[in-house]
Amino acid sequence: MSLISQLLVLLIVTLALRPLLRRRRHRLPLPPGPKGLPIIGSLWDISQDQDLSWIRLWKWSRIYGDVFQFEVLGHRTVVLSSQEAITTLLEKRSWNYSDRPDMPMFLELSGAEWSFVAFRHSDWWRLHRRTFHQRFQPRVMQEYYDIQRVATNTLIERLNASPDDFIEHINKFSSSMVLKIIYGYTLKEKDDPYYRLVYDAMEGILTGSNHGTFWVDYLPILKYVPSWLPGAGYKKKAQGWNKSILKLKEEPWSWVRRAVEEGTAEPSFCTQSAERLSITPGDNSVMENVVKNCATMSFVAGTDTSASALASFILAMVLNPELQVRAQKEIDGVVGSGRLPDFEDRDNLPFVNALLAETLRWGTVTPLAIAHRATDDDVYEGHFIPAGTTVIANSWAVLHDEKLYGRNPLDFDPYRFMNNDGKAPPSPELFAFGFGRRICPGRYFAINTIYLAISRLLASFTIARAIDDEGNEIIPDPGFTDGLATRGPSNAGLSREILTQKHKNRHEWVWGTGFAF
Ligand code: HEM
């Protein structure tokens, strides 16, 4: 029998026997869910539904409940869509839900072995998390203020010079900050190699790490299938991503290494961690590898996420000009026109804070967070959750729950956070950054970044609607992209409608309250 036939037989036998071999370890029923077909389970339903992944899961939750399950190729996934279920399982019982499902597409085939976001719950993951946390805990945040101020001012200058390129400017804004903090590297104005590198790798990272996008995540044996076999397109995709994903780890680190050798290195996450852990860059120690992994992880995690939140904010301002006027009045009243808003102004800017909260809620950057996995068998409200189950929290569903955030959750409405009767809804920060022991460790830095950018943009510009050839305002479609991290303007809503108006009377950034920086 040829190798292919052997592999196919092995595959079919594995799939057919999986349900039979699975022990029924508990008498309680599994959570409700779609029945699915023999062997493939709900794969057909999933592949037929063209909705964004979190909308599809939200729709299923309306049919099967806030805790439902489905099976694909013998792999069980439980989806949590309510605050109660997420808090109980992922927060209160985080000892059992801090593992990750296997992500062979991402970690092995695409070469992202540095990505500790995808590591199993293990000592190896703990070592990375501790190393990262040292430089991203709240008490360190002030050390980054100057870098955040300079990056925000540069963003304003770039927007003023070429407003049409606003998507590129916000991308550069967030990557310039992480490059500086992590490697001590200053982003070049044009053709920066590391900026290009991270965006070259981004498609593979966002798609590959979204668990379940590829069958191989459900059936890891498929990673051994030769890439020339029909249907093995995922392997070719992974090979295409592999090069830039690997380079992401090596190239910026080599730059730091050279800078250290030449005595020109600026203090950064890399140099400070190396000093603290007595590593010499290039010594090939275990800890050198850990620091390199953490650095690469931060470069990636910190680049697209904050940029995505800012893109959603800009879209929200284009859609809701009256909110912008109100926020600008608040800023003018508190800060005046002689300087830009700063970190210490934050407590005095309640409406700007409400805009920030609503941006995190409405434009949910990571709508399905990142998949967790149950380590041991568990029971929730009379339903059995077997060990090994993948557990997905639908953060988007919770952040759009009318019971928590009031009416019209699809509308951008910061007033929902301005309630003075003591019944303000829960802070979106509780759901926007993941859960339990795997909660985003970069969230303090991300919130500071978004706050400063929002408040300084509002103080500097009025973000106006584009005008079409007939003189009518263009109202962009608030479309969101699919994947691990989404984007408000999606390069489809705002950019397609506004940026492609390049040579017409288009999107307008009007110089605002008239101060200099
Ligand atoms: C708006 C900005 C951001 C959002 C919405 C966001 C969201 C998330 C989410 C949902 C997770 C998964 C949590 C879970 O598994 O439950 C995560 C993990 C992570 N994030 Fe962020 N993040 C943001 C910014 C950042 C930044 C700026 C950094 C670093 C500088 C960062 C570093 C990380 C790391 C290292 C992990 C992996 C944690 C682990 O698996 O233990 N994030 N983030």
Task: Describe the 3D structure.
Keywords: Heme, Iron, Metal-binding, Monooxygenase, Oxidoreductase. Belongs to the cytochrome P450 family. Pathway: Secondary metabolite biosynthesis. The chain has 517 residues and is an alpha+beta fold. It has one domain: Cytochrome P450 (Cytochrome p450, Orthogonal Bundle). 50% of the residues lie in helices and 6% in strands. The chain has 20 helices and eight strands. A four-stranded mixed beta sheet has the order 1-2-6-3. Strands 4-5 form a two-stranded antiparallel sheet. A hairpin with a 2-residue loop joins β4 and β5. It is globular and about 70 Å long. The C terminus is likely disordered.
Helix content: 40-55%
The top level CATH class name:
Mainly Alpha
Distinct small molecules: protoporphyrin IX containing FE
**Class by helix and strand content?**
alpha+beta
CATH H-tier superfamily: Cytochrome P450
Count of discrete structural domains = 1
Number of helices: 20
CATH topology: Cytochrome p450
Distance between the terminal alpha carbons, to the nearest Å?
74 Å
Unreliably modeled segments: 488-517
Order of helices and strands: HHHEEHHHHHHHHHHHHEEEEHHHHEHE
Strand segment tally: 8
- Rounded to an integer, what's the Rg over CA atoms? 24 Å
Biggest sheet character: 4 strands, mixed
As laid out across the biggest beta sheet, the strand order is: 1-2-6-3
- Strand coverage percent: 5-15%
Shape: globular
Mean pLDDT value: 84
CATH architecture: Orthogonal Bundle
InterPro entries: Cyt_P450, Cyt_P450_CS, Cyt_P450_E_grp-I, Cyt_P450_sf, Cytochrome_P450_fung
Pathway: Secondary metabolite biosynthesis
Protein name: Cytochrome P450
Cofactor: heme
